Amino acid sequence: MKNSLKTAILAFLILLGFSLSFFGAFNAKNIDNLAYVVALGLDVGETNNLKLSLQIAIPSDSSSMSGSEQSSDSIVNSVECSSIESGITLFNSYISKQIDLSHCKVIVFSEKLAKLGISEYLYTLMNNIQVQSEANIMVCKEDCSTFLKNSKPLLEKMSAKYYEIALNSSEYTGYTANITLGTFFSDYTDTFQEASAILASVNTQNTQDLEATQGSTNGNLDGNYTAGETPIESKSNIENMGLAVFRDDKMVGELTGMETLCQLLLQNKMKSATITIPSPFEDDKIIDLSITLNKRTKNTVKIVNGSPYITSKIVLAARILSMDKNSDNLDKESIQKIEEYANQYLESNLLSFLYKTAKDFKADSVGFGKYAVHHFLTWDSWTNYDWLANYENSFFDVEVDTKVKSGYLLMES
Amino acid sequence: MNYSKIGTIEGICLIVIIIFNHIVLNLPQSITDSCGSSSVLNVLYISFFMFLLVLLIIRLFKNFQTQDILDIAEYLGGKFLKYAVGITFSLFLIFTFSTLLRNFSEILKIVYFPYVPMGFIVVLFLIVVVVINTFGKKTVIKANAIITPIIALSLFITFLLVGRSFSFERILPILGYGVKETFLTGLSNLFAFNGICYLFFIMPYLENKGDFKKIGIGSVVIISIFLVLAIGSLLLTFPFVKFTEALSPVYLIIKTAKFGTFIQRPEALFVLTWILSLLSYLSVGLMFLLIIFKKLTNVAHERAMAPCFATLIYIAAWIPSGMADIRFFESTLYKYSSLIFLFGIFIPILLLANIKYKKKHPKNMVSEGGDGNEKLS
Lengths: 413, 377
Description:
Chain A is an alpha/beta fold. Chain A contains 14 helices and 14 strands. In chain A, a hairpin with a 2-residue loop joins strand 12 and strand 13 (about 305-320).
């Protein structure tokens, strides 16, 4: 019995040894032979189908030699080509190293290409073994080469790290979302919803002057910018703000920061955010609230005469951020007033967002389809109803219930 | 004669290792292709069906407590039936192992070793399997009993890790492609329990004949749990139209799984366990081929035949010209051959043998065929 156990353990070790030998035993490639791409850009070509831009990391010992205008740890090169793979082959022959996409953090589509359709590129990227489904998907308003060249990390030394953490801001602003290739492709192929991508742009004085034309009815601009419009005084750099909404594989519109926040609220994905509402106490004054979801958003879909009737109930917890010497915000009556104003403000924004997606974009970017599918028993009946086409006939009802808890350190002034 | 033989755990591991390997490759995909969003419902349904079937098999084996299906076939139809069943099942095993080996090798080549010749990967697997089999059956069975829980744990962790991506609405519409597809034609998904075929061969090697019931029921329960987990994870994570042509659905799942920012490529660790799993599966498979060969030929040293069977598996691995053929072999030939063996050959033989037995021994319930004990060496 003991011998048999020994032999079994010996056999196990042989099997394990063999399995381990598979790791790297035949791998002739090493870091010296590879060029690691940190960002990949796809644009409409002028002389060919596609303009492929790659931001390639420079190994640390040679980074100091870079004199290019982009961040010193990487270079950006572009090539006109007929497909992604043929472009990579051209790069391989040009740089004499094999392009490796396994550390690619961001895939950027130009707005122009996104409006024409990106289906074939999505499938090609998903088919690529090296490309990680965790890579973020962005749509940039300018050409990808310019966009990548302007990607200069402000507080990070490495571009790859910068791309990795840049989208964490969505967790505390709600003005953009962390959308990956995996989730984008999943939404694109889904019958429940349409896809949306991160909207990005290079923020310059020109883009601010050109595009900052929108304004909310109550004069609150802060959430109504899209990427590139935020009036920040800084050197030109990339900015992620809002979302690009797709119908099928084509981009059909942009969401502002506030509209993105609405989408996240409806999708139960909002972690925390700051909103600015008109003050119920003084005209032309505002109150800032820090909001979090208090309960999961409850969405229901009913089919009324063939049209979707969508209701959403959002329960929020809020804390007051803005205080001044006249603040007397925290008695019961005042809090009730603030709650009412917050509810009205959010409801009007949510309804405006929802009707924009239904009537203007005709794209269910929230994913209400998954609540509608309850009404169907078989796949045929669901596909025959064609939720994504019927979404434009939707009508909405939104209820927001904000519970203002308190301020932070100051209870009242 | 009371030899040290297969215990309950080892017996269960022998059966479930078959399914684990098919789960890693394209078993979940075959089921979702046929049922769509009702795949989980279908798996629960066929699991219940299989549970009843295993109870029936256990009941039918009560009169043949020292015999395997080849002995029973001989009892029922003489040497001809024994040879017919033995040879066809051996061919089926060679075909199954070769297809699975080729499929896994193709995935390894695509994902990790694009410049290594396919033949080299296939041969490496077979060499290890032959070496392990030369140690004897007991070693294969015990090594498999060590490996199977590791594989089970790795699969379980895989499914657990993608839990955050689950969207439970994806199991809707609840009836998928329809009632008929879920409950009637969906019965063909019983092929997922193909590992139960090995139950028909282990009876003579059991330490305690009462373990047969535990092994049968335990195997069905474990297979059902992992099928539900695998298909559930796949269905709840992706729109099911997405992975219809995925290389390996479970690989797709693990690529989606996230361990935070520190470990960004968990799939490499899991591929290691799956290589172990395939090796163990092939070792067990070759062991069964040798058992059948010994039964049919009465050779004294059947282990010497291990390289010959490995060569046959190697040759058969080249029959599919590419992934499309492999998919066809697995989704059609393997599926229907499994069902034919289980429902068209093994169970009818067992049923008819019981009828014959009862006609011969109207009241006597004593086991037929001498002691029938087989020694593991």
